[in-house]
Design brief:
With 182 residues, this protein is an alpha+beta fold. The protein has helices at residues 12-20, 33-36, 102-105, 133-154, 168-181, and strands spanning 5-10, 25-28, 44-49, 54-61, 66-67, 84-93, 100-101, 128-130. 29% of the residues lie in helices and 23% in strands. A hairpin with a 4-residue loop joins strand 3 and strand 4 (54-61).
Length: 182
């Protein structure tokens, strides 16, 4: 069987619980059991943070589904302990200030097309969704782009150098171009 591409919808608090474990483990609630038992090694998972309407990370599963009842994630239902679990490794994780705004990319997803464009978030009601590979790839590329933008800003580089001048490469090309015009 081929890879399955999962979209996991969770709260920011539960995302942080997963991040605190360095994206090594994820649990799914009991209502999602039928889907969760299909999770398998080498499947991919995208993280959507519902209360922030943002995409924040992608992972690869490193185990098949298993059950465990250690309390890690929180919910309003006292009896819920997110027992359907998988081990995983992180692929792309974006810092909070660079999370990908779902309102910008969500309407472009093939998965949400059965809903009217202005109501696309209804497609993400529930915790666990199987999405097309194309959607997963597009979302992961957006995460990577956010990380590239972030690393460029951290270095103080972008179009202009640290002091607001064009970078040296642009200055070097200008005299050469002027010399050929003479």
């Amino acid at each position: 069987m081929g890879k399955t591409y999962w979209l996991l919808v969770l709260t920011e608090e539960n995302f942080r619980a997963t991040a605190d474990r360095e994206f090594s483990l994820q649990g799914v609630d009991t209502r999602q059991r039928r889907k969760a038992v299909r999770m398998a090694e080498e499947d991919r998972m995208m993280f959507y943070i519902s209360d922030r309407q943002a995409f924040a990370a992608s992972t690869t599963l490193t185990s098949d589904h298993f059950e465990d009842h250690e309390r890690i994630w929180k919910t309003h239902r006292e009896e819920e302990d997110f027992p359907h679990r998988v081990k995983m490794r992180s692929d792309v994780v974006v810092d909070e200030e660079r999370w990908v705004d779902a309102n910008q990319v969500g309407p472009r997803l093939e998965y949400v097309r059965k809903w009217p464009p202005e109501m696309w978030p209804l497609a993400l009601v529930g915790t666990l969704h199987i999405i097309p590979q194309r959607d997963f790839t597009m979302l992961e590329e957006e995460l990577k782009r956010a990380n590239i933008d972030q690393s460029n800003r951290r270095r103080g580089r972008g179009r202009r150098g640290r002091r607001g001048r064009r970078n040296r490469g642009d200055n070097r090309q200008q005299p050469a171009a002027a010399a050929t015009q003479d």
